[in-house]
Design goal:
Length: 138
């Protein structure tokens, strides 16, 4: 019974919130309110705990910040908002003493949405920054 509940629970949680994207890649998403680039304290602490839980983070991974917005507002506005969200997450990573050379940023803005913008839930899910850890190939 417990295994069935865990399975159902895992089906409900989107993989981009916290999990593995491709083999060896890890990700954590930070979500924002509409038109906002503010990161609340709870998400800041979650990101910090997540990063702290990864053994040998600095030796094994390159970090990509991938930002998204919903489609409300124009392309130019959403590009700016995407960049502001990336910069906020970048600042959190720098505060964790992660070397800038390990951090790369991709701002999608309203382009390339992962979720549909035709629903309220989709809009909310597209207002995010994904922190993706890619294994370093030595």
């Amino acid at each position: 019974m417990v295994a069935r509940l865990v399975f159902v629970f895992l089906l409900i949680i989107p993989l981009t919130c916290f999990g593995q994207i491709n083999a060896g890649e890890l990700s954590k998403s930070i979500f924002f309110g509409g038109g906002s680039y503010y990161i609340d304290e709870e998400q800041t602490q979650e990101l910090s705990r997540w990063l702290d839980s990864i053994p040998n983070l600095l030796e094994k991974y390159q970090i990509q910040i991938i930002s998204h917005t919903d489609n409300i507002g124009g392309k130019r506005y959403n590009r700016w908002l995407s960049q502001m969200r990336s910069q906020m997450v970048h600042g959190l990573l720098i505060q964790k003493d992660i070397p800038e050379k390990l951090i790369h940023i991709k701002d999608w803005g309203l382009e390339n949405p992962v979720y549909t913008n035709d629903s309220y839930r989709g809009l909310m899910m597209n207002r995010r920054v994904d922190v993706v850890l890619f294994p370093l190939v030595l």
